[in-house]
Design a protein that fits this description.
Helix content: 10-25%
Structural class: alpha+beta
Radius of gyration: 11 Å
CATH architecture: Roll
Number of domains: 1
Number of helices: 1
Shape: globular
Distance between the termini: 17 Å
Mean pLDDT: 86
CATH topology: SH3 type barrels
Order of helices and strands: EEEEEH
Length: 69
Amino acid sequence: MCVGLSARVVRVEDGTALIDASGAQREVSAGVLEDLEPGDFVMVHAGVAIAKITDSDENETDDLMENLS
C-alpha cells in the first residue's frame, strides 16, 4: 500500500517546491503539476508533488492519519 502525504506549498522555484507538512519542511519535485503556487495544498508521494488538493481534503487527511496512530 502506498501512502501520500498532504502538505502546504511554501515556495516554488525551478520545478522544485518547498513544502510544509505539519511543521516539517522539505523540498520535493513539482514538475508534474502546472500552476503550483505558495499556499496551495498538494499530495506528495516518493518526493514528488503528484496532485493539488483542497483545504478540506488536507483537513480530512490529517484527521484520518491521527486516528491511525
